[in-house]
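Review form for a predicted model. The reviewer records the input and the model, then writes brief findings.
Reviewer: anonymous (R2)
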Amino acid sequence: MKDLSLHILDIAQNSVVANAKLVQIRFTVSRAEDLLTIEVEDDGKGVNEEMVARVTSPFTTTRTTRKVGLGIPLFKAGAERSGGSFSIRSKVGIGTVVQATYQLSNIDRPPMGDLAGTVVSLVMCNPQIDFVFAYGVDGDAFVFDTREIRQQLGADVPLETPQVVSWMQEYLQEGIDSLNGGVLE
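Model under review:
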């Protein structure tokens, strides 16, 4: 995958398949620690310890349409290649947390990509699921939460309405840009 937003899309899609009702995506930058942390947490069905131990193998997948699953192995390899680390924790019936860290200044760290577009795509394609996207840089944070947006819009206005989608895209991009300040490309 060419950028971090595509990894986030892939991992969040795993959460959707796991019947999550809430998916939390945290993207945190610490310039002082030279660290970028990406965490995707869900309240889906979770997996047992045996599957957690095997999930970083490309030959482990829960899909029935093919025998190879590359999303998690590529996410892990990219983090480790850029001086970072990878972890996954899961409990059956509780949910899963996938975390990747990257050395911020490492030349092998993939570019950020279109985070705003990724989050909007997830919301549009999965209107039954709530998403929280938190973007933090050096202790300052921007938070996008579909539960709050639903509350403001009321039950009569779906999130996938074109005007709402356009607003969400703009709101997310402004929030990210307000904190980014050239930190990530």
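Findings: The chain has a mean pLDDT of 89.
Further findings: The two ends are 16 Å apart (CA to CA).
Recommendation: see findings above.
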